[in-house]
Amino acid sequence: MASPRDIKKRIKGVKNIQQITRTMEMVAGAKLRRSQSAAQHARPYAEKINSMVHSLGKAAGNIQHPLLKDRPVKKIALAVLTSNKGLCGAFNGNILRKAEDNVLRHASKEYMLFCVGKKARDYFSRRGYKIKKSYMPSDRELELSLIIELVKDLSEGFEKGEYDQVDLIYSQFVSPMVQRPTSLTLIPFTKPSEEEAEQQQRKAEKDKKAAGDYLFEPEPEELMAELIPKYLESQVYNALAQTQAGEHAARLVAMKSASDNAKEVIHTLTLSYNKARQASITKEILEIVSGSEAIKAG
User: Catalytic one among 76, 88, 116, 236?
Assistant: First the structure.
């Protein structure tokens, strides 16, 4: 059994860790409230512009635009959104597993990675994947400059024929307890993913305005040329907002769990300390009594 002094040192060390996890829990809670608000406000706009662009595309017929070209998919650009920091449970691991499954499922195709967040960059670089470019988003707020830069890099690469499809892997924020890794086909947006197709179908059922009822001003090509960049930026902004909210929620849960576990460890160590201290006192009493008896016998 460890000595009372050693157990006391362990209790002090665990208490110090508990203070850190409690502080991180409070910080994550404050950041979650702000990022959750941003995610909730970004989602309706992204869904609406997504529905509008698809409806306009159907109503306008054949519109010529570089980002609307549907060609055989041989090369895929994969934009993976993760956090810069850890200590958020399985949050980053779930996103990275979703991205790697996407790569393995289409092993015959060539992949080019765009990593948003330090965790994605480090994960894929260690495994020898080809990283086209990496981005380090701010942990405090959503940076429009980063979003514009990412959209520009992805769209220009598609127009130049460097890849034939752009997929976005991010974490959809469902609730503080649930974050769902999601795959979205960003370019060409005429080929939606399964999740996006389901969302479009639900929106179409609720939409009372038929596609043929649209009147175009200015011309459809000019209108779509303005809308498509806005559409791409809104989708990336929404994905980044959802991912940041999910990160803070996952860290809040992880730090709360760590604080609770530290409390249990302190309780167990305190019992061990009391038992060790009691055993030490009992041993000292026995030694005193034994010495006293030996003196009397002598």
Answer: 88
